[in-house]
Design a protein that fits this description.
The chain has a seven-stranded antiparallel beta sheet. The chain is 36% helix and 19% strand. 35% of the residues are buried. α1 runs antiparallel to α2, α1 crosses α3 and α8 packs across α10. It contains 13 helices and 15 strands. With 434 residues, it is an alpha+beta fold. The chain folds into four domains: 147 residues, Heat Shock Protein 90, CATH 3.30.565; 58 residues, no CATH class; 97 residues, no CATH class; 105 residues, Metalloproteases ("zincins"), catalytic domain (Zincin-like).
Length: 434
């Protein structure tokens, strides 16, 4: 190379109009880190200095489309565009690399009849590495430097999955691209997520990658944090709230543990209002589980978290325990009277499966039912302890007869019919006492 050369680039001064000094510095830092992960980045007295200890920048690198891709470079244009932007901003720039030094500036081209990028190139005796000095404000430098994870000091919540302790921050290979509405920050490795100047991301692909990461997540602390946040409806605009994912076999028990930690051991997933009420009547609860986005509830169901439907299906498969020891004569008498009296108050309600006494009617450790009507067998069961008095036995039997004729718990029809029966019974008792 001669002592001094002038390179003319047929690139308009208006190219990459959205870039400023910050973006140009970011590209220079990215270029240095692509060639030397231990590159030095600093600022002093109005100049940012980026130094690497690599083999230098070959002449062909300055041709658009040529160069080393590395972790950050995809289109192999970044350093060239940075020179254009800094020249446009009238910033002093010096690139010192192996064998030559380069100074970019804008000038009028007689050949192209407009302003284009020029690089003044002169020989030097450098044998190793590259140093780029750029005139810049300290805030411009800091903004560019902190776009890189290794300089920004943002801790990882999960190294392997690239989950960061900075909500909404999206990085690609350690370089900040955009902020998204996310519970956590993310460091991804797919460079095709963004366009050339890193101003647009493929949102659908970002969601797909986050879904893949959530499927692999096996950290109860982070799962608990996610459920705690997303049960608050004000957080439903977070990107995780709209992603369907299917936890791995290894992670499913961890999701179950996180669910229990947040909602309790008797919590269930909502399903259908009527079935929900039936399960709640047997000691289960929904609470704020129904505040979770549907996609999250879907993932929890995939992990085996029971819904009201699965709970009631399990209940319907249970066989009530028969009396042990056998009923006494007094119990048999009360049982018979309760069937007869309740039948008069709820006519046409004899179940096709008949009546039976159960020693135990429990569906979890906390709740003991007093009676039940089984749709599958068409039988009414009454708990043995209810046979201690006629009043208890009749009340329970009337309740279950109403179920036998199609009235479900917690419905208006059930409440209205039961209220009418209570009114009639009390009125009758009063009239008989006169």
């Amino acid at each position: 190379m001669s002592d001094s050369e002038l390179w003319e680039y047929p690139i308009s001064a208006n190219y990459v109009p959205n870039w400023g000094v910050r973006e140009a510095l970011r590209e220079i830092i990215a270029n240095a880190l692509d060639t030397d992960e231990n590159a030095s980045v600093k600022w002093c007295d109005g100049y940012a200095t980026i130094t690497d200890e690599s083999i230098g920048i070959s002449r062909q690198y300055w041709v658009l489309g040529e160069g080393v891709g590395g972790n950050f470079g995809t289109f192999r244009e970044g350093l060239k565009m940075a020179m254009l932007v800094l020249a446009r901003a009238k910033r002093d720039v010096v690139v010192s690399t192996v064998g030559y030094t380069l100074h970019p500036y804008l000038g009028y081209s007689e050949r192209f009849q407009c302003n284009v990028l020029y690089c003044k190139v002169s020989a030097n005796s450098r044998t190793e590495g590259t140093t780029v000095t750029v005139e810049s404000l300290e805030e411009e430098y800091l903004s560019a430097r902190d776009a890189f994870l290794q300089f920004a000091s943002i801790p990882y919540l999960h190294d392997e999955l690239g989950i960061l302790d900075k909500p909404g921050a999206l990085y690609v290979n350690g370089m900040h691209v955009q902020n998204i509405t996310s519970v956590w920050g993310w460091n991804m490795t797919d460079r095709t997520l963004m366009n050339r100047d890193r101003s647009v991301i493929d949102t659908n692909k970002v969601k797909e990658i986050i879904g893949q990461k959530l499927s692999k997540l096996d950290n109860v602390t982070l799962m608990t944090e996610l459920l705690n946040i997303l049960q608050n409806t004000s957080f439903h605009n977070r990107i995780e709230a709209g992603i369907y994912f299917y936890p791995s076999a290894q992670a499913q028990s961890s999701w179950a543990d996180a669910f229990t930690t947040v909602f309790g051991s008797k919590a269930m997933l909502p399903c259908d209002a009527r079935i929900d009420l039936e399960a709640m009547n047997r000691g289960y609860m929904i609470g704020t589980v129904d505040h979770l986005p549907y996609s999250i509830r879907n993932a929890l169901g995939y992990c085996g978290i029971p819904s009201s439907r699965t709970i009631m299906a399990e209940f319907n498969n249970q066989s009530p325990e028969p009396p042990d020891p056998p009923l006494t004569d007094d119990e048999i008498h009360i049982f018979s009277l309760a069937i007869d009296i309740s039948g008069k108050w709820v006519p046409d309600s004899d179940p096709f499966g008949g009546f039976a006494v159960a020693q135990k009617l429990s569906w979890n450790d906390d709740v003991e039912a007093l009676g039940c009507y089984r749709n599958d067998s068409g039988k009414i069961y009454i708990l043995r302890s209810q046979l201690e008095s006629l009043e208890m036995a009749v009340g329970t039997m009337i309740h279950e007869r109403l179920h036998a004729i199609g009235h479900d718990d917690f419905t208006a029809e059930f409440e209205t019919t039961l209220t009418d029966l209570i009114g009639k019974a009390v009125s009758t008792a009063y009239e008989m006492s006169l």
